[in-house]
Amino acid sequence: MKIIAVTLGTWFLFMILAIINAGIRNGVYKPIVGDLTAHQISTIIFIFVILVVTYLILRFSDLNLSDSQALFMGITWVILTIGFEFIAGHYAFGISWEKLLADYNILNGRVWGLVPLTVFIAPSLSSFILRR
To answer: Burial code of 30-39, b = ≥16 C-beta within 10 A, e = fewer?
Structure first.
């Protein structure tokens, strides 16, 4: 049960941190550097936040994840992240489906797709580091 509580609790923390990250992006540096560069900067910042928070949560929660538990956590985070992004993004925040999908177009410099990849690998990577 602890793994489920930590998995969901950490993801809700990510959601809050993502909203804060977006607010800082839109209010502070997007007006200065423009949309694309702001998107790239905030994505890199959020990837760093995900990795650090995951490591700290796993370190201080005393969860010694097996490989399958780390995989479960990562898959759960990916499903919740993409689900929230598309469902809340479209229905609560009014973002068009085209705009939501456009953030995954790496050929146009949109690097948001690295966030689901990061939430997928973060538990396994952190668990691996903590076992050393």
So the answer is: beeeeeeebb
Q: At what angle do helices 114-131 and 67-87 cross, to 10 degrees?
A: 160
Smallest CA-to-CA distance from 28 within 13, 42, 43 is with 42
What would the pLDDT profile of 37-70 be if each residue is shown by its tens digit?
999 999 999 999 999 999 999 999 988 999 999 9
Residues in the chain with pLDDT values less than 70: none
Share of the chain above pLDDT 70, in %: 100
Residue 118 CA: distances (Å) to CA of 33, 39, 78, 95, 104: 25, 16, 9, 23, 14
Closest CA to 10 of 39, 42, 49: 49
Domains of the chain, by residue range, sit at 2-131
Helix 67-87 with 2-24: angle, nearest 10 deg: 40
- Output the CA–CA distances (angstroms, integers) from residue 56 to 97, 118, 123, in the order listed: 34, 15, 11
**What single DSSP character describes residue 108?**
G
Tokens of 91: 């229905």
State pTM to two decimals: 0.92
